[in-house]
Every structure is written in C-alpha cells, then in structure tokens.
Design goal:
Layout lengths: L1 E3 L1 H7 L3 E5 L5 H13 L4 E6 L4 H9 L3 E11 L12 E2 L5 H11 L4 H4 L6 H15 L14 E7 L2 E10 L9 E9 L8 H15 L4 E7 L3 H9 L3 E12 L6
Parallel strand pairs: 2-3, 8-9
Antiparallel strand pairs: 1-2, 3-10, 4-9, 4-10, 5-6, 6-7, 7-8
Helix pairs in contact: 4-6
Length: 252
C-alpha cells in the first residue's frame, strides 16, 4: 500500500513515498502517517480514484492536499488516423533541441504545481533527463530505459516535437500494449497539428509491432493534450487523483 519512492528521493533530494489505495479507511491513513514518520518521509504522494466523495473528505481531514487530476486514455488501433504533417524517427543530433523542449513543456505536472516542493528547478532537469534516457543517452541521470521508438516532427528546419513510444511485455494471451510515454511540442510550433501528426505516426508504429491497444496518461487540466488524443481516436478509460502530504515543514 505504501513504499519509498527511491528514485524520486535521490533525484530531488526530498525523501518521498508513494501511497496507492482506492478506498482507504481511517486506519489505513493512520498507518500511512505512522509509516511515513518512522521512515523520515518528507513528502507522500497518493494516487487514488476520484469518484468516492468519502475518500476526498477523509483525505482533507488527514491533511492531504489534492494536487493533480490524472486521466488514462486508450486507443484500440482498429482505425488509424492520418497524419496532417510529416514526421520521422529521431536522430542523435536532435537531442539538444528535444531536451530543450522537454525541459520547458511539462509545467503542469504535480511536482511543478506543488507550491511547497523545494526542488522546482529539478523538475525541468527530470524531464530533460527522462527524454535523453528515452533517446538512448545512458549517461543522463535517471533509471528510464531507452524507448522502443521516438517520433520527431520538424518545423522550419528544426526538431519541433517528439513522442516516445514504449512497448509493454506481451500478455499471457499474446496481446501486447503500447504506451505513448512523453509527448511535447515546441511552443512556437503549437497549433500546427504537429502533436496530432506525431501521435498518429506513433499509433501506426505500434500497430506494426503487433500491439492491439495503446495507452497514454495526461493531466486532467491539460485539455489541449486531451483534445489531440481525442482527435486521434483515444477514449478515456480511467481517472485518478493525486494528493500530497508533507511531513516535514515545507519550504516555499
């Protein structure tokens, strides 16, 4: 139910834990408090379903703050959309431009939005490192494995966006799922259907790899991304809420 988030703790220098429980009781949250105190946790993040009002009220009573709304969308790959702009596979010389896009694009993540998080500058570092690792740079910080495929779009001669694609291991019945992992478009190229075209290209690649379903996760407040995924044929499958609770005095 609760565990140390080892990589986040090391990367951000903030001892962090993760609680995952859809329907906790008072005893469960009391146990979480006891565990976090015993393990010297500064921040505990809790991912749960948002459809139970009693869970929300219990969270408030125990001092948790709602930080983010997360939605998971699926595409069944039966009907593939057509890209509106050209895309290609990433090249090594794209990395500086792609890292810059990654560092400046994910400003609505739960860590970036938490006003008490003392390592805000490291949030950009995390996404830059995440992107570099996905593109095969094993010298970058982090434990992310290389992506199975990276789609890039050009605009005015420069790499203007990317989609990193990850294959899940096959299920026992042979079914295989793909994951749209990171998606970002350079700010000056937004509104040109670049994101939609890259997602379309990623879907075609996943189908070529034998996938039957593709999953993507985004923030509930990120309506721009959700519209893009809807136009590409994704449908929402699950909604979850992120809560944060600080056990050390936060530093603003």
């Amino acid at each position: 139910m609760i565990s140390l988030a080892a990589w986040e703790s090391t990367f951000f220098g903030v001892r962090t834990a993760r609680l995952e429980h859809d329907a906790p009781t008072e005893a469960d949250l009391t146990h979480a408090d006891t565990w976090c105190t015993a393990h010297h946790i500064a921040l505990c993040a809790w991912l749960t379903r948002p459809d139970r009002a009693e869970t929300h009220h219990l969270a408030i009573r125990f001092g948790w703050q709602m930080m983010d709304f997360r939605v998971t969308l699926d595409h069944d790959l039966r009907h593939l959309p057509t890209p509106k702009t050209p895309t290609r596979t990433h090249r090594e010389d794209d990395l500086p431009a792609l890292e810059c896009i990654a560092r400046t694009s994910f400003t609505d993540s739960r860590l970036a939005l938490d006003p008490y998080f003392p390592a805000q500058a490291r949030v950009a570092d995390m996404y830059g490192a995440w992107l570099r690792r996905r593109c095969g740079d094993t010298h970058a910080e982090g434990t992310f494995a290389p992506a199975d495929h990276v789609v890039v779009a050009d605009h005015a001669g420069q790499a203007a966006g990317f989609v990193t694609c990850v294959l899940r291991p096959p299920e026992p019945d042979g079914q295989r799922m793909g994951v749209v992992d990171l998606v970002a478009v350079e700010s000056g190229a937004r509104g040109l259907y670049i994101g939609e075209s890259m997602v379309c290209a990623a879907l075609a690649w996943f189908k070529s790899q034998g996938c039957t379903t593709v999953e993507v996760v985004t923030q509930g407040r990120n309506t721009r991304a959700q519209r893009t995924y809807n136009r590409c044929g994704f449908l929402m499958r699950r909604a979850q809420t992120w809560y944060h609770k600080w056990y050390d005095t936060p530093h603003v």
